[in-house]
Amino acid sequence: FYPDWFAGAWRATSELVAVEAPQGDAIAGQRALKLRGTLGTSAAIEKYAQRYINYRGHVIADRAYNVRSLVRSSGGLESVDWDPSNPNSLTVTLKRDGTSVRTQLKITKRATGIPQGREGDLFNASEFYQEVVGGDYGSAPRVTPVRCINKFRRVAGGQIQVLQRLEVFSNPGFDESVKDFGEAIRGGGVDRSIPIVVYRYRAILVPDIAA
Predict the structure, then answer these.
(1) 3-class SS at 147?
(2) Can you say how many angstroms the Cα of residue 82 is from the centroid of all Cα atoms in its chain?
(3) What's the rounded Cα separation, in Å, for the pair 161 and 25?
(4) pLDDT tens-digit series, residues 154-184
(5) Do residues 20 and 170 touch, judged by C-beta distance below 8 A?
(6) Edge-to-edge order in the sheet of strand 99-113
(7) CA-CA 20 to 30 A from 16: which of 30, 45, 92, 161?
């Protein structure tokens, strides 16, 4: 759950500020290298809406709304399915080259923390999840373990500064029985505990007075 000061609608501006390849560029892949080439340009900046809502007495992220707003900015969005009563699963369907591609995000572990005495302005959150792409019509899905770490700071004007670290790990293969992130990244007896790509973002959330 999020602190009460998250509740409401926000206008987010996010910038990709670093792309790291801990195991080398060859393993990181072409997508990471392409994104690295956008650093310092307008292509590294995205603007979208975010919303945090009250649900059963707690403030939670409206994940369907937030993902829909972010993905819509890049085009091709068909649908976003998410139920706040089951917040650990979200499905996004995109149109790519005339084909519908489904991506599921399955959160396996999350943690939050607030430094003592800083309840009014600091909040940290991390999630481990499996990104499952495809798998329809009998095809094998592509599964990528990801760890997302966010550090939030409330500043003047009620704005929220965000530092985000997105760690992408190598694909261990899909296994419905995997419930633990550590087990997933060590799939197949190979230690995949080092990310292949780390994306770092810097963002600002501004209260959307008009919403």
Answers:
(1) strand
(2) 14
(3) 30
(4) 999 999 999 999 999 987 554 444 444 444 4
(5) no
(6) 58-61, 45-55, 8-20, 197-207, 160-168, 142-154, 122-133, 99-113, 89-96, 77-82
(7) 92
